[in-house]
Amino acid sequence: MNLKEIQQLIDMINNSDLDEATIEEGDFRITLKRSSATPVSHNSQQPSTQEVIQAPAAKPQEENPEPSTPAAEGLIEIRSPIVGTFYRAPSPETDPFVNVNDRIESGQVLCIIEAMKLMNEIESDFAGSIAEILVENGQAVEYDQVLFLLKP
After folding, report:
1. Is the pTM of this model over 0.85?
2. Is the backbone of residue 110 left (phi > 0), alpha (psi -120 to 50) or beta?
3. Over the range 70-81, which residues count as b (16 or more CB within 10 Å of their CB) and which as e?
4. Which helix (H) or strand (E) holds 12?
C-alpha cells in the first residue's frame, strides 16, 4: 500500500460516518480512527483522522504496574497524538525544546514526532513545569503513549 492509497483511505473515512476502519494486506495492517476529544494534551492542529500502522502485526505488550499513578500525584499526562519517531530537538545540533523542570506555557512546542517523513510539532495544552520526560530521543512512539508528565 502506498502513500496515495493511504491518503485516499483517510479521505474516505473523513467523508463517511465511520469512526474506525482497519485494512489488512498480508503482513501490512492500517487502522484509521476519527479523533475524539480527550482530556489529555495533544497538538491542536492534528488531522481529524489518526493513522496507526503496524507491519507485521505486533504482539501485545504486558503492562508493568506502577507504584503510583500520575493522576494520584497531580501530574498531567501529555500523550502522543500519532504513531512515529520522537525527537526532543528540531535538529541534532540544537538544544532540546524542553528539559525536566523547565517552565512551559500553553501552546509551547515540546517535541517533534516524525510520521511518514512529516515532522509534527507537539504543543502543550497546559502551562506548568516538566516533571518527567518518558521517551528517549529517536524512540518510536505509539498513538496515545505518554510522552511527558507535567506539574500544573
Report:
1. no
2. alpha
3. beeeebbbbbbb
4. helix 3-14
Q: Which of 39-53, 76-90, 98-112 has the lowest mean pLDDT?
A: 39-53
Q: Which residue has the cell 515532522?
A: 119
Q: How far apart are CA 151 and CA 78, in angstroms?
A: 11
Look over the chain and give the mean of its residue pLDDT values, rounded to a whole number. 77
Please determine, for residue 52, whether its predicted confidence score (pLDDT) is greater than 90: no
User: Could you identify the residue written with the cell 501490512?
Assistant: 28
76-151 maps to which CATH number? 2.40.50.100
Residues forming beta bridges with residue 149, ordered by sequence position: 77, 132
Residue with cell 517552565: 103
Residue 44 has pLDDT above 50, yes or no: no
The residue type found at 38 is T
- Distance, CA of 11 to chain centre: 21
What are the extents of the domains in the chain? 3-54, 76-151
